[in-house]
Amino acid sequence: HEWLIRIGYFLASLVVLILIIKLINWAYKKLNLHLSKFEKKFLKKKKNILRYFIPKTTANIFVFISNVSRFTIILFLLLTYLPFMFSFFPWTEDIVHLFYGYISKPVKFVIYGFIDFLPNLIFITVIIFITRYVIRVQRDIVEDIEAEKFIIQGFPKDWVGTTQKIISLLIWAFALVLIYPHLPGSASPAF
Fold first, then answer.
1. Angle between helices 61-86 and 93-146 in degrees, nearest 10
2. Which of 72, 96, 179, 182 has its CB 3.0 to 4.6 Å from that of 83, i.e. a possible disulfide?
3. Which residue in 71, 70, 92 sits closest to 82, CA to CA?
4. Contact residues for 63 (Cβ-Cβ < 8 A; gap 6+)
């Protein structure tokens, strides 16, 4: 009699899982329809700067991102719900606890690793923004030299483009030297 109750719980949880997956698929089908329409309107706007960041060869990039998130949600649901379903049977309880341990260890590792990396990420972001700003200022100076609004005595106008590229390369190299110690794994022997 106890086995029938456990099997009943298992089948009820299986039906709930199937209904949840069908609900997720239905909701994403509606979302993808709206995203497809939105993307067509989005790409037609001429003043929209974000359209330059969408690859021109891809069709429906928003729908693709939506499908990836749907797949991720369903995978997460299966990884967390299937062990719950099998926990109704006594011979699988140890396997379920072991499985949850296998899931929780990498998740904790990633979350704590990301939290530990946040100060370095902020430092890297600040260095990149400063570097891009310096290069933009340098580019403005080069444009003024080429337009003869800014004149440097003894410096030919023809050398400006090449000099600007060399200096930009040196600035990025210096930024990479500053960033390198803050990259994850930079202290390992592989680097």
1. 160
2. 96
3. 92
4. 32, 35, 36, 39
What Å distances lie between residue 150 and 41, 138, 154, 182, CA to CA?
44, 12, 13, 38
Name the one residue in this structure whose structure tokens are 């719900």.
Answer: 81
pLDDT tens, N- to C-terminus, the chain (191 residues): 787 888 888 889 889 999 999 999 999 999 988 888 887 777 666 666 565 556 666 667 788 888 899 999 999 888 888 787 877 777 777 887 788 888 888 889 989 988 999 999 999 999 999 999 999 888 888 888 888 777 778 878 788 888 899 999 999 999 999 999 888 877 777 66
Which structure tokens are listed for 77? 């649901």
